[in-house]
Amino acid sequence: MAVAVEKLITSDILKPGRYLGNERLAVHKSWDTAAIRWVLTYPEVYEVGASNLGHIILYNILNAQPRQLCDRAYLPGQDLAAKLRETNTPLFAVESKRSLTEFDILGFSLSYELGATNILEMLDLAGIPLTWRERQKAGEAGGEFPNLQSQFPLIFAGGQTATSNPEPYADFFDFIALGDGEELLAEIGLVLEEGKQAGLNREHLLLDLAQIPGVYVPQFYDMAEDGSVHPRRPDVPKRILRRVATPIPAYSIGLVPYVETVHDRLTIEIRRGCTRGCRFCQPGMLTRPARDVEPDKVVEAIEQGMRATGYNEFSLLSLSCSDYLSLPAVGMEIKNRLKNENISLTLPSQRVDRFDENIANILGGTRQGGLTFAPEAGTQRMRDIVNKGLTNEELLRGVKTAWEQGWDKIKLYFMIGLPGETDADVLGIAETVSWLQRECRGKGRKPLNFNLTISNFTPKPHTPFQWHSVSTTEFKRKQNLLRQEFRRIKAVKVNFTDVRISAMEDFVGRGDRNLSKVVRRAWELGAGMDSWYENLDQAFSAWGDAIAGADLDWKYRQVENGEWNLFHAQDQARSPDAENTQFLTPISQLPTPNSPLPTPYSLDTPLPWDHIDTGIEKKWLKEDLQRALEAAIVPDCSFEGCSHCGVCGTDFGHNIVIEPPAIPTFAGEFVPNTTKAQRLRVWFGKQGNMALVSHLDLIRLFDRVVRRAGLPIAFTGGFHPMPRISVATALALGATSSGEIADFELTVPMAVDTFRQQLIREMPTDIPIYDVEQIDLKTPAATQLLETAEYLITVAAFEETTPVQWQEWIDTIKAKDELWYEHTTKSGKSQLINLRDRLFELELVETHKGIAESISVIRYLGSYRQDGFLLRPEQILFMLGMVASGEFQLLHIHRNRLILGV
Length: 902
Hints:
By secondary structure, the protein is of the alpha/beta class.
């Protein structure tokens, strides 16, 4: 049964458009005909979750399956979360508005070590017990349930963090989906459908799921004293395979939100996986082999996606876009096809050694985006240790190419605390930046600006550096070294990662099942992800108290001291600058399992994630660590010889590298068409859910509607050309209207009816188009002609009031010549204004009795000039209060019409 959310999603909460579920390309399937009903959730606020590509792809794939329905849910803002708890309303799915407990299966994306607290917050808001044991116990009570023989849906997690080490979160989930989900989730859906038809209980259903490669059911496994995990029954696999799927770009097209999101653009994946082999990089290890997408499929998806969504920007996504050899050809083909539509391309962090004029050409243009490179280390020795595969010459060539192609600001990522790092390597970061600035100087050009992010190395499971960590004291000291050094370098902005966050990520990310109680207690103490940004001290304190409460503070101190790693053992055998380094001795000289040192210092000690089969052999990780100590480079196996990591084979496939097509001839940059051949004035409304979409979001919506409709809109000139669409005035958030006005200027004349039909076809139904009229090109904009506005306002009186009293108050206001109101200007000055001068008509339309108040609907016509001489709905309440000597509440605003002067 749908939750009555219309009473909760109101204009007084922040960005209510987050919760409407009415986005362009959202899929609304029949609830009654679905055999299995999913909710995919992203445990972050809507702006982050709704623009996540994996979330969009899996949502589209599940809804493409017969008899499967997929809805969505997100972490609500604090204001809505408070409302849900105050009214005892469970968290709901945004499209169906049904409680999450009504669904069969609820999936969370876990992509960050500290993100599980948000998952617990969502489960609590939904009224779902937090652990699988609690849910199992509740299910033993019996009864008739709508979903999979249980009171609660199956709860699972997927994503990079869940795949790398699910153990700190094992208590919370019925199962974990490991690796790529495109094929895996569809298989899970089929097993659930069969199990539901057969009436299987929860345990038998999970046992069936455990037979699917890529499904890990924690309750069928036990943790040994050393933290390792082993099956507790013979009918489940000893090691669980990570799933690998081929990217399908067509599924990336979908969900065009009405509110602005973090990645407010079309995103198409061009290559999945990375074989560069950076030794600190977990995604590079967990996504092998590398798989290119066919260039023609990428081009087709982008062209179709831009037409279907109306976005003015697209992004090509990969862990290393520059390793997609077809990038220049694909980028240029799309740029040529869409050259007249003011479309821009953005790319994530790129390989600086592959950045050349071809890539610069596809990124440049009217709206040149930013550039991000990741050298990672400041010296050649350190880049060899981490296997970055980047020389100083390649770094300079890439940065200089960008500077020569017009970029004046570049973002660079560096990392400190890497194995083998000395102070000279740390200071090498500043020396490298200064050197790049010196090499990129020229007459008539301002100095090259750099925006640096310097993060702290955090060891990740399934990487060669998973046995290494650094003390927070060392991180702070190295940060201070760089701060002092960068004071002498101009045109550089430096951002450092908080060392406490890094230590906490390390502690949780390499933890075992004992950490589930820590995660839960941290959530209870208020450590949601948002708290890291709003009050870092409070969040850190919550995690610290949770760790202490679990009697694991000794273990956390090891992380803080840089001791919880293999290399702590040789502190006494370090080099003369031992106080300032993380010097590593050869593996052959490190303590053996039989040494008197504690077992965590042995490479052969079982790890909490050893039962996860990523395809990379642990033996190879040890060997690659040895190569790191020798600063030996391992070539990229996508383009050179095999590195023998163990991935390639029947379970995971092989690298797929596609030969690039020829780069098309550049057809020229976008030149804005400023021709004004026709001006059309449109009268439209704003009804229903669209009343909760802000004015800025409405402007963005009009731009996308025009693009989808293929209307020949004129552009402004200048560096940032904008479509010539002018909305007369803003409407208050939450207010409805049947009298809004917008002007559209076209480059070629169109039949008015044709324009109207094309506009209606692409507009949401809650933005009705009432009329379209052609006006003279020299006619002033509607904004300049505004004179008056007519409103219907719904007002509540807190004391019992008769219709006669309402009418008397209206008549009293109309009879007065002066009603003075103190207005505060934007500069903070107070001025008295006579509201009566601005009121032209006032009429009582109707009255009725509410639950605890008397309600009236009042029509008024007032001044609405853009020079500030206007009458707002709230000021009608002020006038009522003056004549009635009482308090009133404004329940709703509806703007009937805007009236233009001649």
